[in-house]
Write a structure and sequence with these properties.
The chain is an alpha+beta fold. It is built from 17 helices and 8 strands. Helix 6 packs antiparallel against helix 8, helix 11 packs across helix 12 and helix 14 crosses helix 15. The radius of gyration is 41 Å and the shape is rod-shaped.
């Protein structure tokens, strides 16, 4: 009832649905009103034009053989034409709408369409086409017999004219009806399309457009010529009249062919271009990173399968993005990108030079012993959230969280030639800006060297990590901060790789790293202050 109370809104939705099916969010009841009104109007209009065209062709275009009382015969044909038109129209509307009422029940119930509902919507234009062709062919027989009682040649000509006009009319109505029923088709195929085509495909429609715009008119010209040559003595007794009549017929049929052919080509082109435009617009949205876009599926041909395929593709991209975001919560974004892009997850890895950062909390055992577990986790997360943000800002990635510490890497998997400078800048920024509400303090150790970066694990459980002695040394360098009291210590190899401006460094001699047989020179960042 709301649709009837707001005709202006319904008209706007109708216009929106006809130009962009499935995008107006119209209700099922509104779609039924739009579809029924549009189909009824098109059927009446096209058949009325066809009936008028038949009368005009019979009265003024088709060359007539010599028949007694031809004026009375033409009048009788005109009356019979409009009488048959009214009867055929009533029969056609009644029979045609019986099938549409099944579509109405499904739309007004606002329920998902099943396969039978989808087929009814998609095949409705074809059923209407078959019904109209049948009615026009019956009319061709009726008028052919009626006029054949006066002249066999006239009966054949009228029958050919009615049949040809009926095919043109029914074809136009089919193409237009398919367009106006697309909103209902979009609602029906909201969840998929039939695997097999249930309506004529793109190639068939193209052939139909040629047949409608060119073939029928050419057939009419050929048929009139043959009938005139075989049944018209006027060509021999009055050749100038016969040639003139044939010329008029050819010009009129040729002009009709141009007009109807243009209409057919435009309609078929639009039936193809409109869904492709919807895919193109959606593709532009996907290119901008909007993966929640969806193309309404309303075409029962190969184009509808293309629309559905596009939606399935976007759903896959959306799922991929969801996985990427999930990885980002548990795995560093750079590593997640590498995993998603890698064809083979069982790689042996590659050797690359990196700078490793190790951060560890001081006196954490005592803190954890005196604090509730939930508060311990909150205190760690507060620190890690600040640290990780700074690490990412400088091009590093967090390899893993190790209890109350973390291991970060600069230079892999994304190559950065200034990894040592970035690592030191990260350490200084963390030391100066990261603090704990719970009073936790931490030390930072840096070391550089060649490591093996790749997938590590087995039995279906893998992680991307770095392995090698530089990683162990970084952990030992951080542990040395407890001895020296510094907030940041860097190994000699890291200092040698520094190229840009960096804070003042001061060597810390006589510090032996646990587990190392060779001496590793350590340097403190003197301008960063005390440990946190």
């Amino acid at each position: 009832m709301s649709a009837l109370q707001h005709p202006a809104r319904l008209v706007r939705k109708a216009a929106s649905e006809l130009f962009r099916p499935g995008e107006s969010q119209a209700s099922g009841a509104q779609l039924w009103l739009i579809g029924r009104a549009a189909v009824t109007g098109l059927v009446v209009l096209t058949n009325l034009i066809g009936a008028i065209a038949v009368v005009l062709l019979a009265l003024f275009v088709i060359p007539s053989p010599a028949v007694s009382n031809i004026s009375q015969l033409k009048l009788d044909n005109t009356v019979l034409a409009f009488a048959y038109f009214l009867l055929a129209l009533l029969a056609g509307v009644w029979v045609g709408t019986q099938r549409l009422f099944r579509v109405r029940d499904w739309l007004q119930d606002e329920r998902p369409a099943d396969l039978d509902d989808i087929r009814r919507v998609l095949r409705a234009p074809m059923h209407l086409f078959a019904l109209q062709v049948a009615l026009w062919l019956v009319g061709a027989v009726v008028f052919g017999v009626f006029n054949g009682l006066h002249s066999t040649g006239l009966g054949l000509r009228v029958a050919v004219a009615v049949a040809a006009t009926g095919l043109v009319t029914a074809s136009c109505a089919y193409l237009l009806t398919e367009l106006v029923l697309r909103p209902a088709a979009a609602r029906a195929m909201d969840r998929g399309v039939p695997q097999r085509l249930v309506v004529p495909g793109v190639a068939t429609k193209s052939v139909l457009a040629w047949f409608l715009g060119t073939g029928i008119q050419l057939f009419g010209i050929v048929a009139i010529g043959l009938l005139a040559l075989t049944h018209s003595p006027s060509l021999t007794t009055h050749p100038e009249h016969g040639v003139t009549a044939l010329g008029v017929a050819m010009v009129v049929l040729g002009g009709v062919g141009l007009a109807v052919g243009l209409l057919a080509v435009v309609v078929v082109a639009r039936t193809t271009a409109t869904p492709l435009d919807s895919v193109r617009r959606a593709l532009k949205e996907v290119e901008q990173g909007h993966f929640h876009v969806r193309v309404p599926v309303y075409d029962g041909t190969q184009i509808g399968q293309l629309q559905l395929g596009f939606n399935n593709m976007v759903a896959g991209l959306r799922e991929r993005e969801r996985i990427r975001e999930a990885f980002g919560a548990y795995v560093d974004p750079d590593v997640a990108d590498r995993i998603l892009e890698e064809d083979d997850l069982h790689l042996d890895g590659e050797e690359v030079e990196v700078t490793v950062m190790f951060i560890d909390m001081r006196d954490f055992t005592g803190f954890a012993e005196d604090t509730e577990p939930k508060q311990v986790v909150q205190a760690l997360n507060q620190l890690f959230e600040q640290m990780v943000r700074i690490i990412h800002a400088h091009g590093g990635w967090v390899d893993k969280f190790v209890g109350d510490g973390l291991l970060a890497v600069f230079g892999a998997p994304r190559r950065t030639p200034d990894h040592a400078d970035q690592a030191l800048a990260t350490a200084v920024e963390i030391a100066q800006n990261v603090s704990s509400d719970a009073g936790l303090e931490f030390g930072i150790g840096l070391n550089s060297g060649r490591v093996l970066a790749g997938n590590i694990g087995g039995a279906g459980r893998l992680e991307f990590s770095v392995m090698g002695d530089p990683v162990n040394v970084a952990a030992r360098v951080e542990a040395a901060t407890r001895t020296t009291g510094d907030g940041i210590l860097i190994a000699e190899h890291t200092r040698e790789l520094l190229s840009g401006d960096h804070p003042d460094l001061e060597e810390r001699p006589d510090v032996h790293l646990k587990g190392k047989t060779e001496e590793v020179r350590l340097f403190a960042v003197t301008s960063s202050g005390d440990a946190h």
